[in-house]
Amino acid sequence: MDIVEDFDELREIYGPPSERSLKKQLSRFDNHCRAFIARSPFLVIASSDPSGRCDASPKGDAPGFVQVLDDTTLLIPDRLGNNRVDTIGNLLARPGVGLIFFVPGLNETLRVNGRACVTTDAILLEPLAVKGKVPRSGIMVAAEEIYFHCGKALIRSDLWNPEKQLRRSEFPSLGRILADQIGGISVEESERLTVESYRTRLY
Question: Would you identify the CATH topology of the domain 7-157?
Answer without folding.
Answer: Pnp Oxidase; Chain A (2.30.110)
